[in-house]
Design brief:
The protein has 278 residues and is α/β, with parallel strands linked by helices. The chain is 36% helix and 20% strand. It has two domains: 2-173, 3-Layer(aba) Sandwich (Rossmann fold); 186-269, Pantoate--beta-alanine Ligase, Chain: A,domain 2 (2-Layer Sandwich). The chain contains ten helices and nine strands. The longest helix is centred in the middle third of the chain and has 16 residues, at 124-139. It starts with a strand and ends with a strand. 37% of the residues are buried. The structure holds adenosine monophosphate (AMP). Adenosine monophosphate binds next to helix 2 and strand 5.
Length: 278
Amino acid sequence: MKQLRSISAMRSWRGFLSNRLVLVPTMGALHHGHAALIRRARKIAGSNGSVCVSIFVNPTQFGPNEDFSAYPRPLAKDLALCRAEGVDAVFLPKARDIYRSDASVSLQESTLSNTLCGRSRPGHFSGVLTIVAKLFFITLPTHAVFGEKDWQQLAIIRRMVRDLDIPVEIAGCPTVRETDFLAASSRNAYLTPVNRAQAPRIFAALKNASALSSIPAVIRSAQKSLAAIPGARIDYLEAVHAATLAPLRNRKSPGRLAVAVFLGKARLIDNIPLPVLP
Ligand code: AMP
């Protein structure tokens, strides 16, 4: 497995590839959710293609009071996971190579970013889109894989690729959960044992609510269950259209029930489908 630590090393490796290159962008602290993305990438790449995982804790997608410095960076463990999953190359750029000190161009999405995480994390999706576009330009993948756990991120990246005619095929990968159904996340490491024991109630709240037939009933039910979790504070809880992320009014279009909850120091996000009901 190659370790490519500069843009020029990445570009020269890329230059020798003539078949599919599937990129899996990550911020490291890899877990079995990331492993599922890598396996999906391997399948898309096929026996002649290549899989590249990028590991970069992107400073521009963190707000001033967020966890950029505290974000876990267990590089040796990450490399071992990539090697075990048959990754061909890991791209490990340095922040100073990615962002010039006088950089003055960035990307902005102006509709889907105005809700959910975009509302509580101003500038976050601009940071995400800018780094994803840069990674696409540097690595020139034919395909890229993203997780449905970050549903809004996936929707916004699909929109960027559509609106800018970027020739990269985007694949979404279903959310991977722990055995108690808590969505796997690098940020679960921030949970105290007490909060960790409560955290699966977030998914349970969404799951139970999603069976109800009216959207107000779905929201009321989830709100009630989430409010009953000791130490939890709801950042947002919304039913949105699956593709446009516009508020969902009824169960005649495919939707997503999405939540962000503070549990102690951790801000956990999750979402589940709200399928069309007959
Ligand atoms: P991150 O390293 O958290 O930025 O995530 C990198 C990629 O992994 C993103 O596309 C995430 O949506 C995806 N991902 C993270 N956790 C999960 C999970 N539990 N299930 C599926 N995909 C995930």
